[in-house]
Amino acid sequence: MSEKTNQWPLWEVFVQTKPGLPHKHAGSLHAADREMALLNARDVYSRRGEGTNIWVVPADAITASTPEDVGSFFEPSNDKPYRHPTFYTVPEGVKHI
Amino acid sequence: MENRDQLFQYCLRLGDSSLVIGHRLSEWCGHGPILEEDIAMTNISLDLIGQARIMLTYAGQVEGKNRSEDDLAYLRDSMDFRNLMITEQPNGDFGKTMMRQFFFSTYCYFLYQQLTKSKDATIAAFAEKSLKEVTYHVRHTSEWIIRLGDGTEESHERVQEAADELWMYTGEMFTADEVDELMLKSGIGADLDKVKQEWANLVNDIFKKATLKVPSGSYMITGSKKGKHTEHLGFLLAEMQFLPRAYPGASW
Prior knowledge:
Order of helices and strands of chain B: HHHHHHHHHH
Helix content of chain A: 10-25%
Largest sheet of chain B: none
Number of helices of chain B: 10
Largest sheet of chain A: 3 strands, antiparallel
Oligomer: heterodimer
Strand content of chain B: under 5%
Number of helices of chain A: 2
Number of strands of chain B: 0
Distance between the termini of chain A: 36 Å
Structural class of chain B: mainly alpha
Number of strands of chain A: 3
Helix content of chain B: 55-70%
Strand content of chain A: 15-25%
Radius of gyration of chain A: 19 Å
Largest interface: A-B, 13 and 12 residues
Radius of gyration of chain B: 18 Å
Shape of chain A: flat
């Protein structure tokens, strides 16, 4: 986390826009603890009716891949089209796939 | 309409308190201690000004003299305002603003719970809508009172001092006059004794968690329900009303 001692910890905010949909990353904010992080997330990221549910996660709890990982992580799957479910017919009326 | 004058007064009290404390909070806009809290205070301010708009519009209709929400907000002087004196007190530091808002929002929370059952359909609808907003205001301010009270030595001292300073303005929230009594009797208004008990319980509970002492002072200043105010309201109105008075009828 930030080395500046005058900054509160950083939190990542995930907002669910409708019941059943996955939470999406909305942005980040600073807060002293998890309850205040939740309140701040409500105030900063759900002012225009965006949300039905909010997650806040300490930013340092997230482990991310690095740009150097791209080659070994993602490129090997580029030539394996049989992993895509595109060979199935999707029933009519199915959304959110 | 029966009891038109009293109902007009009752609506003015509800609307003016929300308007004045909403304006006070808006003074923080751009000056919040952190960006997130700046937005939070502005959100609360907008909720309150929205509540004031509903109640002042209705007050104008009840009065029947063709006065709009803007006429009532911008073209009355301080002796015609009926907001509680706690709402006009200056912001002070962040702790004092939170304490003022905590005292007032907690009062609204219990008041509006009763008003949702008002026989006056507009007041009941107003209370229903406002209660959801106020529930959040209570949560937000309580969390801050707990953290400031149980925080550092300095934050504890400052927020305790704020509570002590504001305490004498809390009494009139629960002091019923003949308008309150008439409104209660006719099923429109709320029972302020009940609000007082519920308010005291919640304040005691939060203060305990915050390691703060509930002030023991018994002197309470009253009079806003008759138009008596502290010197701060005039300055607040001078700023809030400047534009519509300098440019009558201005719109955007």
